[in-house]
Amino acid sequence: MPMAVGLRFNESIRHRLEITRVEMPITTRCNLHCRDCNNLIPFYAHPVDFDINLLTKDVDDFLGNVDRVHRFIIMGGETFLYRELYRLLSYLILQNKIDLVHLFTNGSIIPGADILHLLQHRKILVTISSYPVEVSPNKPRFIDTMEANHINYIVENFLWADLGGFNPSVNNSMKALKHRFANCRRKICHNLSNGEYHLCPRSVHGAQLGQFLPNDSDRVIFRGRKNPQAVRKELQELFHKDYITACSKCTGNNDKTLPPGVQMDRGTILLEKSDSQSSLALEK
To answer: Residue range 219-248: average pLDDT?
Structure first.
């Protein structure tokens, strides 16, 4: 390769924006009510599926501003409850900028034949989260279905981290916030939601649930934009933050573990959320 061509190639690589992994929630509906859900899904009083047209438009807008996404994760709620999953998967598979489409599930819902056919695609990976059979009794059958249909899948087998639930008691001094963020393993779980890019799912869901007051500097708006240079600059600024507002409602605990999938009754969930919102009102 001539030197000039090599220099131009290296320069183009240096200015590429490749996203290692990003998650996109597609529904807040779930058939479980996990006490320790990292994404706070049980605290949605009125769970819904997100509009398929907005989801695909947001993916279009996002991909128009980046060069590549190595792993594009779709999340719930429970992913297989999403009514437009076939249409969404069909669309994501065709995106040349996406290397891998990764689904997470609690393994409780056996997909229909049409979805199973799509899941056989080489770009798709299914992860079955580490729920005990007592919580997700269909899990063995789900695994058998993955095997029978030659679908690429992983079964997780680890304890959950204790992030403090909906209204944790945490030290929110500047030093403590920075320390929690610096040591947080979940800050790689970047999220696309509602046309915005966030550094973690609790930043998305906590703001939507009123867990804390949103901060505009904790997100990059990309919906309706086609300006890679500006979006790249804003993303780099976001990536270099010392902490985000969501850290004020998260223990960031990487050491304290919990058994996965401990269930709560609906009344307890709504009471805990109500108590947190009362505290927020007093802080205002």
So the answer is: 96
Break the chain into its structural domains and give their ranges.
17-279
- H runs (alpha helix) in the chain: 3-14, 52-63, 85-93, 113-119, 139-148, 174-182, 201-208, 228-239, 266-283
Higher per-residue pLDDT: 202 or 284: 202
Token readout for 280 is 């927020």
Contact 182, 247 (CB under 8 A): no
pLDDT digits (tens, 9 = 90+) for 262-278: 999 876 665 565 555 54
Mean pLDDT of the region 107-132: 97
CATH of the structural domain 17-279, one choice from 3.10.310.10, 3.40.50.300, 1.10.357.10, 3.20.20.70: 3.20.20.70
Q: In the chain, what percentage of residues exceed pLDDT 70?
A: 89
Residue whose C-alpha is closest to residue 90's, from 120, 135, 66: 120
Q: Which residues pair with 18 in a beta bridge?
A: 68
Q: For residue 229, what are the CA distances in angstroms to 16, 17, 18, 66, 216?
A: 10, 10, 13, 9, 20
Q: How many CB atoms are located within 10 Å of the residue 259 CB?
A: 12
